[in-house]
Design a protein that fits this description.
Structural class: alpha+beta
Distance between the termini: 19 Å
Radius of gyration: 23 Å
Oligomer: single chain
Length: about 200
């Protein structure tokens, strides 16, 4: 899968000069965990997250705490955002994108076409894809294989996102292409392609 296959688009964005309260409202209204921050030229200059808008903005209960008043919280998105965010190109491999999200502990990554923002991929987007029904996955795999090798050549079974394809012909190149096509379908965890005579590919 590529980032463009699962990204959310169009993207809700904020600007560095926007009030933090506006970013909080957009996050709450849309159920997002992060928003890209763009400049006047629509270039991504940062990301603002739920954690960014929470920090320092929830006052302590004065009935339980005493002492000096806390400093006033930052007012603009530019003051709280994370700058120089990691971005992915729309053709990026989703496996690599997910690895970056997990390693960096980020919940979302802006997706670019060159320097233009075209989407965003969140952990929720990936989980949604992985939760696709096996019957829907099988239908999409069959459709792609039909275009490549005809309607009656392939038998497709899907269990838990794992695809098993049986080919009527013993052609290693075609089996490789079928594997690549199947693994490009959103929701596919793994694809195995085998010849009815017993030769197998994909382990």
């Amino acid at each position: 899968m590529r980032a463009k296959d699962i990204m959310t688009s169009p993207v809700v964005t904020v600007a560095p000069g926007d009030p933090v309260k506006r970013a909080a409202r957009l996050l709450a209204e849309h159920g997002f965990t992060a928003l890209p921050v763009v400049d006047d030229a629509d270039r991504v200059v940062g990301v603002v997250t739920e954690a960014d808008v929470l920090a320092g903005r929830v006052p302590r209960d004065a009935r339980r705490h005493s002492g000096a008043a806390p400093d006033a919280p930052p007012e603009t998105v530019g003051e709280v955002m994370s700058d120089s965010p990691a971005c992915a190109q729309q053709g990026a491999d989703v496996a690599e994108l997910v690895a970056t999200l997990l390693e960096s502990h980020h919940r979302a990554m802006p997706v670019l076409a060159g320097t233009k923002l075209v989407g965003i991929v969140t952990r929720s987007d990936v989980v949604r894809v992985l939760s696709r029904d096996d019957a829907d996955i099988a239908r999409d795999v069959r459709r792609r294989l039909m275009i490549y090798g005809g309607p009656d050549r392939w038998t497709v079974e899907v269990h838990g996102g794992t695809v098993t394809i049986t080919d009527d012909y013993d052609d290693a190149t075609d089996r490789h292409v079928a594997e690549v096509l199947a693994e490009s379908v959103p929701g596919v965890v793994r694809a195995t392609v085998r010849y009815r005579g017993g030769d197998e590919r994909g382990d």
